[in-house]
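I'll show one example:
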Amino acid sequence: MGLTWNKITSYVDLLWQIMNEPSLPASRPSTPRHDESREQKVASQVTLPASSGRPPLFALIIGINNYEHYGLTKLYGAVPDAEAMRKYLVEDLKVPDSQITLLCNRDASRQAVIDGFIKLRDNKNIKKDDPILIYYAGHGAHYTFHLNHTHANNHIQNKISFEFLRVWESETEFDEDGFATITPDTKNLIRGGMLDIVVEKDVMYGIKIKNDTPWNLHFQCLYFDNDDFSITALTDVKTTSRYARDYTLASTGGTAAIGYGSLGIPPITCELPDGVDVAAGFFKFWFSSEPVDLSHVPQTSPFDDLRHIQEKQRTMKPVWGTVLIPVIQRRS
């Protein structure tokens, strides 16, 4: 027997059935519709089973109506929905208020949300397999907003090419700053527009970019980690003025590189934490004819041990050498 879909008219109903019939598979997919009158009627007919034997529920509830950035429109139902969810948990499911974190509007800052996740992670009262509810009401999240934010310019998308290359540090050649020079391989690891690599310890990579458009373009690159929702800048994303340092691709065949070459951008390293066999993410490049400040886009993850893509922190190797000057002495 599956979930009783004819009694599910809201996400609140769905939550109640999942909590009280956790072993039942869904008999068919459904998208609950929000009907407040129906929700109140169904809730009044529910007789909750005794709480003994049920694992404790912990919840992080977020509701945002008012947005101060990105020009997003004001909402009116997100905060009431979040408050209604908290009320339902406390009054109907008898979840202790101490096990619920409610963040609304300005209280739902990025740091507050991160702190909410950390609080759940470090809570000694949460045991393995205990249910945790993360409820969000508002515009699309920071991660998905910037990942999906795009502008259809086929000339840029079709006229810029990429090569993802393994790179090596030289043991004998150094640049003018004293760092070992970095040499790229010639084998492009991108196949069919996708990068699929086996992670190896201490292996470094670079990205070659070629611009075949008729415009000189500035570029920036960030990595979106799909596992911990961090956004890591691989280039300097802050441009304080049009004369600040930025990265330029010359038109009609110009090239630039991340991880090697004259721009001095550090190489890329890949790492999987213990217990993780596969990780997914996206390199996202921004191209523009004028410098763009993207310093508001990067974000850290509350789970620091899940970082998969990062810049190689380069250090100067100890160096030594000798100079031999032949000497010939002659009698006058």
